[in-house]
Write a structure and sequence with these properties.
about 200 residues, alpha/beta, Rossmann fold, two-stranded antiparallel ribbon, 7 helices, globular, binds flavin mononucleotide
Length: about 200
Amino acid sequence: MKIVAVMGSYRKGKTIDRLVDRAIEGVKAARPDAQVEKLVLIDRQIEYCRNCGACRREDPAKPIAQCVIDDDMQEILPMMREADAYVFGGPIFEGTVNAVTKTFLERICWTLARAGRWPVKGCPEPRDPRKKRAVAILSSGLIVPLFRIFCDDATKLLKSTLRDSLSAKVVGTMYAGGVEKVGIERYLDRAFKLGQKLVRE
Ligand SMILES: Cc1cc2nc3c(=O)[nH]c(=O)nc-3n(C[C@H](O)[C@H](O)[C@H](O)COP(=O)(O)O)c2cc1C
C-alpha cells in the first residue's frame, strides 16, 4: 500500500510537520508494510497554475494530463496518481489553507481530473477510477476546535479537491486549534489515530 503524506506548512519541525509525522507513525503501526512518501511542499519547486487550459484539453483517457510547466510537479503527479491513500496536513491561514497548499491543489486540479458530466457538465472528475482514502490535518494559531466552524474553509476545500482530483474520500479530519496557546502535545494522539484509521479496512 502506497501512501503520500503532504506536509503543507512553511515551518519544519512545528505543528503540521509534527502532526503529519505522528499520523505516519499511526499508518506504520497499523500497516507495517505501507510505503509512505512524505512530500514537503516548500522543499519542492511548485509554480503557480497558469490557467493555460492544456491539461483540461488533454485526452480524458490518459491517466495524467500533461502540464506545460516544467517543475517538480512532473515528478509529483505520478506519485500522487499511484498512491492508494493520502495524509494531507496544512495550517489555517486567513480561515483556509495557506498559499503553498492552495498552489499545490490548483496544480492537481485538472492534471489528475478530467471534465465530467455531473453535477454540472465540465466539472472535474478523477481520472483514476480507484476508490481511495485520505485524512486531513489542519492547525490554527488562535481559534480553538469549538469555534472551528468560524475558521475552517480548508476542510471543505480539501474534501472537494481530493474527491474530484484524487478520487479520495476524506475519512477523518482533525483541527489542531489554538496551538499558540495550548501547544500541540494534546493533538499528537489524535493524529496517530487518524493515521491508523486511514489504512484500516
Ligand atoms: C498569514 C497568517 C494567517 C493566519 N491566519 C490564521 C487564522 O485565520 N486563524 C488562526 O487561528 N490562525 C491563523 N494563523 C496562525 C497559523 O494557523 C498557525 O501559526 C499555524 O497553524 C501553525 O502551524 P505551523 O506550526 O505548522 O506553522 C495565521 C498565520 C499566518 C502567518
